[in-house]
C-alpha cells in the first residue's frame, strides 16, 4: 500500500481525453504531471487542478521532437519522483493521403503516436517494474481495427505494442491497458476535419465516461479497453468480418471526412 500521494503523468493533457483523465485522477486524489506543447493551456489546466487541492507539475514538450521525448522519459524514470500511472494520450488526426508526396504529416504521426508511445511506455514500465507496481495507459483507437490510412496503421501499432508490453510485464505488478475509444465528443474531430454531423448520435461517447470505463478496466487489469457495449460489439464484428468487407466499410467511414489536412 502506498503511503504517499499517487502521481500520474498525462501527455496531451490540455484538452479532450487527456484533460478528462487529468480531472478524473485529480478528483480521485492523484497529483499530476501534465505534458503538452502549449505552455499557456498547460498553465490554465494546472491552475484548475491546483484549485482542487492537487499538486501539479507542468512539463512543456513537443513529442514530435526526440529531445523532448527524452526529457519526458527521464521524468518517468526519476526514482526520486516516482510516477504511478502513465497516460500516453498525445495525438491528432491524420488526413493526408498515403500517396501524397509530402510525408510530413505521416512522419509526425509516427513520431508522436508511435515512437513516443514506445519510448515513454518503456521508460515507465522499467521504473514501475523496479518498484513492483504501476499502470500504463496507451490511448489507441477503434480506428486501429479498420483500414483508414496511416492513422489506423499507427493506432494498430499502439494496440499491438500495448499487448506486447503487457506480456513483458505480466506478473510484475505493472499493468498495461490500450484504450480504444470510438468517436468521443472533443475538439479532436473538428481539428481532424471530420464532419460530426455525418456521424450518428448513438456512436458519440462522452469523454468523462470513456475515462471512467478505462480506469475501471485498469483496476481490473484489462489489456484492451473498448468503452461502451456498442463499440465492443462493433469491434467484435470488425475482427470477424472478411477483410474485403472491412475495407469497404472503412472506405465508407472515410467518406465522412472533409479534405481538411491536420498537422
Characterization of the model:
This protein has 263 residues and is α/β, with parallel strands linked by helices. It has one domain: NAD(P)-binding Rossmann-like Domain (Rossmann fold, 3-Layer(aba) Sandwich), CATH 3.40.50.720. Helix content is 48%, strand content 14%. It has helices spanning 16-27, 39-50, 66-77, 104-131, 149-168, 188-191, 207-220, 229-240, 243-254, and strands at 7-11, 31-36, 56-60, 85-88, 134-139, 174-179, 183-184, 204-205, 224-225. A seven-stranded parallel β-sheet has the order 3-2-1-4-5-6-9, sandwiched between helices. α1 (16-27) links the parallel β1 (7-11) and β2 (31-36). 42% of the residues are buried. Residues 257-263 have low confidence and may be disordered.
CATH class: Alpha Beta
How far apart the termini lie comes to 43 Å
CATH topology: Rossmann fold
| Strand order within the widest beta sheet | 3-2-1-4-5-6-9
- Percentage of residues in helical conformation: 40-55%
What structural category do the secondary elements indicate?
A: alpha/beta
- Share of β-strand residues: 5-15%
Helix-strand string:
EHEHEHEHEHEEHEHEHH
How many runs of DSSP E, i.e. beta strands? 9
Tell me the CATH architecture. Answer: 3-Layer(aba) Sandwich
Mean pLDDT: 88
The number of distinct structural domains comes to 1
Largest sheet report: 7 strands, parallel
How big is the Rg? 18 Å
CATH homology group: NAD(P)-binding Rossmann-like Domain
Count of DSSP H/I helices: 9
Instruction: State the low-pLDDT regions, or none.
Output: 257-263
Overall geometry: globular
Amino acid at each position: 500500500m502506498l503511503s504517499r500521494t499517487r502521481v500520474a503523468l498525462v501527455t496531451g493533457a490540455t484538452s479532450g481525453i487527456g484533460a478528462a483523465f487529468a480531472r478524473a485522477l485529480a478528483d480521485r486524489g492523484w497529483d499530476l504531471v501534465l505534458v503538452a506543447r502549449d505552455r499557456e493551456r498547460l498553465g490554465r489546466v494546472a491552475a484548475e487542478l491546483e484549485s482542487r487541492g492537487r499538486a501539479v507539475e507542468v512539463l512543456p514538450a513537443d513529442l514530435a521532437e526526440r529531445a523532448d521525448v527524452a526529457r519526458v522519459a527521464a521524468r518517468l524514470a526519476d526514482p526520486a519522483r516516482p510516477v504511478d500511472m502513465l497516460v500516453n494520450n498525445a495525438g491528432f488526426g491524420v488526413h493526408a493521403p498515403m500517396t501524397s508526396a509530402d510525408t510530413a504529416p505521416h512522419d509526425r504521426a509516427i513520431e508522436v503516436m508511435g515512437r513516443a508511445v514506445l519510448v515513454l511506455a518503456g521508460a515507465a514500465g522499467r521504473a514501475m517494474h523496479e518498484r513492483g507496481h504501476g499502470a500504463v495507459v496507451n490511448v489507441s483507437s477503434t480506428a486501429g481495427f479498420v483500414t483508414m490510412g496511416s492513422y489506423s496503421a499507427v493506432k494498430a501499432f499502439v494496440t499491438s505494442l500495448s499487448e506486447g508490453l503487457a506480456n513483458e510485464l505480466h506478473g510484475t505488478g505493472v499493468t498495461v491497458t490500450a484504450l480504444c475509444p470510438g468517436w468521443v465528443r472533443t475538439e479532436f474531430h473538428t481539428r481532424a476535419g471530420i464532419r460530426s454531423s455525418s456521424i450518428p448520435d448513438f456512436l458519440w461517447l462522452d469523454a468523462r465516461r470513456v475515462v471512467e470505463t478505462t480506469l475501471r478496466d485498469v483496476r481490473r487489469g484489462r489489456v484492451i479497453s473498448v468503452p461502451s457495449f456498442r463499440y465492443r460489439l462493433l469491434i467484435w464484428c470488425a475482427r470477424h468480418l472478411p477483410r474485403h468487407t472491412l475495407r469497404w466499410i472503412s472506405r465508407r467511414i472515410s467518406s465522412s471526412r472533409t479534405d481538411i489536412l491536420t498537422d
